[in-house]
Design brief:
Elements: H1 2-5, E1 28-37, E2 40-47, E3 50-55, E4 61-66, E5 71-79, E6 84-91, E7 95-100, E8 103-109, E9 114-120, E10 128-133, E11 138-141, H2 162-181, H3 188-194, E12 196-201, E13 206-207, H4 216-221, E14 225-234, E15 239-248, E16 252-254, E17 258-264, E18 267-276, E19 286-295, E20 301-309, E21 316-319, E22 327-333, H5 340-343, H6 348-352, E23 358-363, E24 369-374, E25 380-385, H7 391-405, E26 410-412, H8 416-463, H9 474-518, H10 523-533, H11 546-560, H12 582-619
Antiparallel strand pairs: 1-2, 2-3, 3-4, 5-6, 6-7, 7-8, 9-10, 10-11, 12-14, 13-14, 14-18, 15-17, 15-19, 16-18, 19-20, 21-23, 22-25, 22-26, 23-24, 24-25
Helix pairs in contact: 7-9, 8-9, 8-12, 9-10, 10-11, 11-12
């Protein structure tokens, strides 16, 4: 048709006319043709509501099938040597319909919503159904079984013993419950074998294009570097709806932190980049990979986690240590100390140029310096800095590497400045919350005033008052209210940013406190305190935040660790209400101090009890 319209003008004009036409009365979605026999060709037409089959002369309608659903696409083919005409139709419910003529022979649910379908032949698989989704997902499906035509005969109700049936049902329920609690549950080893997660963090840092490339100084300091993370998933079975989440702590973010795999059969590799976005101090180097999936045979949901570590050079670099500091933490060891060249080999060259018993580490994002000094006469490490928020990641790295390199026991002392640091960050976070609430309340009042002004102006226009609208002063009041709201919206954005920074600082100092307490208390009590205060503050929530949840959690923790406790909580459940008064906030700070003191007292009591047991053993 296009070539017909592009002929030379010298030729005589001709009209393009169809050889035949047929009006089906609805819009056509797709057309296909098949060879029915050596002398007959069928034309298949998919309409919005019907499926038509016409002869090639378009005079005779072979058949028409009324569709009770919205069709997306179709494909027609002939089965040889029978010569049966089969039609594949995809419904908008992701359902595949297979028709032989006008009779539905098969239906199947597809894992995606296709936009096109075809039938393909592979080397060892004939008649595979290939579908393509709008997002570009391609899948080859096949019908692997014959439909079951067995129909269960009707039950004869005569002579049915309902009492025996009820007893049998109770026995079956008990048996199912016993199997579920014992042998039917997969062990951790089996779950790990079902899905194996391998995480590879590249030690070679790459330039980040999202940073400020104009600042060559920042590039040289490593502020605009990113790290490549490769996640390999492998399984021996078929897993459905596999979701993989990549979680890192601020200031780092993952380029893509969520992946969805509809069907995982063998091996799949995921890649993402991790880089810094803000100038907040690094809190942790952990990379948490969480994978959830559903087994194909049992349909049960399972969750696996895998931890990895970011390269330390993404967040720290070697620098000269500082002699003076405001915040100090001491870690004592009962064995000889490990040299810095063994603890931090990535900074070996820089360490050799510094003092042999001191190491300075500077945060790449903030520039804060943290110094680690090893004792010359005593087996202890002293971590010190003028910025308490920057000490968490250094203490975490030092403790992790000491556990790998040394076999002795480590202890520390919770000083008063650690508690004061946490309380100061609590106050900063609480003040930022109050500031956000105050600005939001003012915006709400101005919004109410704005609606009242608009109603008054509308009433004035409808009444057609003799005075002009400008004489009433309402336009001026309306404009001034608009300006006030816009100014408060800018202040609200700034206040929310301050609240986010205060929340990050609070999490840093809480993590530092928990890292130090981890050396002194047992696992059970530490897990209770970590669950009570060691979570990330909720962001941009007006009603409940970190303070309200910690207040209730610490109250429960203090009751459970009290000597008067009977082993179970008899108190009534506490209702979560918004903290509005300074008195309630002061009680929260006292509860935190009591919780830390109680853990230290429990540690001293455990040590006394252990010494008494050792003395008894020596006497015996």
């Amino acid at each position: 048709m296009a070539e017909f319209g592009s002929k030379e003008r010298s030729e005589e004009p001709k009209n393009l006319e169809p050889d035949w036409s047929y009006n089906i009365g609805e819009a056509i979605l797709d057309i296909d043709s098949v060879t029915l026999s050596s002398f007959e060709v069928g034309i298949l037409i998919l309409g919005e509501k019907n499926l038509y089959c016409l002869k090639d002369n378009c005079v005779t309608l072979k058949y028409a099938k009324r569709l009770e659903y919205k069709a997306l696409c179709f494909q027609a083919y002939v089965i040889e040597p029978d010569g049966k005409l089969m039609v594949l139709v995809i419904a908008d419910t992701s359902t595949l319909m297979i028709y032989e003529g006008t009779t539905l022979k098969w239906s199947a649910q597809l894992p995606l919503t296709p936009v096109t379908v075809t039938r393909a032949h592979f080397q060892h698989l004939d008649g595979a159904i290939v579908v393509l989704s709008e997002e570009g997902q391609l899948e080859a499906c096949y019908l692997g079984s014959e439909p079951s035509l067995f129909i269960a005969p009707p039950l004869h109700r005569r002579g049915y013993d309902y009492v025996a049936a009820e007893d049998e049902l109770m026995e079956l329920r008990k048996l199912a419950k016993r199997n579920k609690t014992s042998g039917n549950q997969l062990s951790d080893v089996t779950m790990d074998a079902e899905l194996i997660i391998s995480v590879t963090v590249s030690g070679d840092l790459e330039p980040c294009p999202r940073g400020n490339q104009d600042d060559s100084k920042n590039d040289s300091e490593g502020r605009n570097l990113m790290c490549r993370v490769t996640i390999e998933l492998s399984t021996y079975t078929t897993l459905r709806d596999v979701q993989v989440c990549v979680d890192v702590s601020k200031p780092f973010v993952a380029e893509k932190d969520n992946y969805v795999i509809t069907n995982l059969c063998d091996r799949h590799i995921l890649r993402t980049m991790i880089y810094a976005t803000t100038d907040l101090p690094a809190m942790s180097s952990d990379v948490r990979i969480t994978a959830s999936y559903e087994t194909a045979d049992r349909g049960s949901l399972r969750v696996l986690q895998k931890m990895a570590q970011l390269p330390l050079k993404m967040m720290l670099r070697a620098c000269p240590p500082e002699n003076t500091s405001t915040f100090t933490a001491t870690i004592k060891c009962n064995e000889p100390l490990v040299a810095f060249s063994q603890l931090f080999p990535e900074f070996t060259g820089e360490v050799q140029r510094q003092n042999w018993n001191a190491l300075g580490l500077q945060h790449v994002q903030t520039g804060s310096v943290v110094s680690i000094i090893s004792g010359t006469t005593s087996n202890r490490y002293r971590i010190q800095s003028n910025d308490g928020l920057s000490m968490a990641v250094v203490v975490q790295q030092l403790m992790n590497r000491l556990k790998d390199k040394a076999t002795g026991n480590f202890t520390t002392t919770i000083a008063q400045n650690h508690i004061q640091l946490v309380q100061s960050q609590m106050e900063a976070h609480y003040r930022s919350r109050q500031k956000v609430d105050k600005i939001a309340s003012e915006i709400g009042l101005l919004s109410t005033q704005l609606r009242n002004i608009e109603k008054r102006m509308l009433r004035t226009v409808r009444e057609r008052n003799t005075r002009s609208l400008a004489a009433t002063g309402l336009p001026f009041l309306l404009e001034s209210t608009y300006h006030a709201i816009f100014a408060l919206l800018d202040d609200l954005a700034i206040a929310r940013t301050e609240r986010e920074r205060a929340g990050h600082g609070l999490r840093c100092v809480v993590r530092l406190l928990l890292l130090l307490l981890r050396l002194n208390v047992n696992d059970d009590k530490y897990a209770m305190l970590e669950a009570a205060i060691g979570f990330e503050p909720p962001q941009l929530r007006d009603e409940l935040d970190w303070e309200e949840i910690v207040d209730v959690s610490l109250s429960t923790f203090l009751r459970s660790t009290s000597r008067k406790s009977t082993g179970h909580l008899d108190a009534k459940p506490t209702t979560l209400t918004k903290m509005t008064s300074t008195k309630e906030f002061t009680k929260l700070k006292k509860r935190l101090v009591h919780a830390v003191e109680r853990l230290d007292s429990c540690r001293e009591a455990d040590m006394v009890e252990k010494e008494q047991l050792e003395a008894t053993d020596r006497v015996s």
